[in-house]
Fold these 2 entries.
Entry 1:
Amino acid sequence: MSRLRARIIGTGSHLPEKRLTNHDLARMVDTSDEWIFSRTGIRERRIAAEGEYTSDLAAQAGRNAIQAAGIDAATIDLILVATTTPDLIFPSTASIVQHKLGLSHTRMPAFDVQAVCAGFMHALSVADQFIRAGSCWRVLVIGAETASRIIDWNDRGTCILFGDGAGAVLLEAELDGERGLLSTHLHADGSQIDLLLTDGGISRGPAPGGGMGVIRMQGNEVFKQAVKAMESCVDETLAANQISKEQVDWLVPHQANIRIIQGTAKRLGMPMERVAVTVDRHGNTSAASVPLALDEVVRDGRIQAGQRVMMVAFGGGFTWGSALVRW
Ligand code: UT7
């Protein structure tokens, strides 16, 4: 029986110009480069300029993925944007991105997916379902954030972690192809929202200090949950594909903390040379982190055709998910 599979035919990313180093942060809060680097693996992160929005980063990452794929952008059937930091409450950032890409005349659907740091895995899985069902031929999936806009710059437990950026993949349906998305796996557990959330919003009203709210996190607890969830997702993905960990060539994990990444790599018995790491330069870019890291290892030629790539992420909600791709 014939079947459709989603193949990644192009990747792209985009980062704001401005770098915020650990030394810069040490002048803002009671911290040090040594503490931040040893606990997280982060050296610096990028911060969007005033007037630079999530949709700007997303659109540029999208353009780069379209260019890498070498396709006519007007043939895209669907745009998905995973973000926790949309330009506005509404319309969706995906609608704004569609327009910024000059594609509104196509009338293609475009919508956002919200699963915080696991947002890209969720958007990728949604795109995969559309392609497998035969509803879409080409889908642009973007993860983009301006996390800096929801940071309490006086909270040393969170302000050192996050950064801004965007990454994208262009998916194309292929009939009976060997390459592409082999499986995706998504999960949520809404029972522990107090461990990682914003302290203000829309229906609940503004934050105590006013405004849309900032990230509040019990880092230590989140750390433990992240390690557990990412390890179990890796196991689930191996089992679903009936492969052993030795058959995975690359790990592209969410970039929250190098120690979480090392834990997931260990579960796969994966040497760190086979793990995409950008956390040192990008910090945690939430929904953008997996596609940003993926774009780096694709563009510098480290990932080769035919290799198996495991992507996995964990975030607020809690939400977590993975995807296995044959490149
Ligand atoms: O992306 C989605 C999910 N997010 C994550 O996965 C993040 C997960 N969490 C983490 O990465 C880590 O928990 C952090 C990096 C946030 C914190 O590292 P930790 O090793 O878990 O530290 P901790 O929260 O247990 O704090 C240890 C100490 C505390 O001081 P006391 O109470 O022992 O005196 C903190 O006040 O470190 C202190 N501390 C800092 N010290 C210097 C917390 N932040 C800082 C800081 N600089 N920036």
Entry 2:
Amino acid sequence: MRLLLVEDDVALAGQLAAALGEAGYAVDVAHDGEEGHFLGDTEPYDAVVLDLGLPKLDGLTVLGRWRDDGRAMPVLILTARDRWSDKVAGIDAGADDYLAKPFHMEEMLARIRALLRRASGHASNELRCGPIRLDTRTARVSLEDRAVGLTALEYRLLSYLMHHQGRVVSRSELIEHLYDQNFDRDSNTIEVFVGRLRRKLGRQWIQTVRGLGYRLDPSGHVS
Ligand code: CA
């Protein structure tokens, strides 16, 4: 899953981006409203963390423009403490949730998990596919109750497929949702990571749909 973080406080943005990275997300960071708006308008993020007080273009304007243009990704806004009117304006402008500063990192992570869960129609933080379980709270994966060690990119790939279980996901969609904008996307191919996941989890769950991409199939039937 790939997130956009728009926060002009550079130190805070660095801390949040580090925590999001550790939680298994690819993260792009923008430090002003214009850049944030541009990225959210052109890149397919799974969720956005948007500060409201931003230079160049304020967060409410950014959010309003995205929504006017039909950009429907989940957005968590960061508001100043005790500014209830900001929360109301933000939600009315199309925010899905808000967090008042200062906040605990764990709360931000829990709210993002909830947004991603809702966006993909899942009821629980633990995603399952046959004997595979992925816990989005701990970023841990198990196979038949035994822990499976995955690299950050393997985890991201599996997490994206599990959130979109049963649907064919193209290679280009995977590339867009697994890597941040600074990543050299040419040097790593999705096929390599799919191969590694199959070796670790069994070949039958991630199916290749010729010419279209991959599908995670909980029945494990090889098509
Ligand atoms: Ca700010």
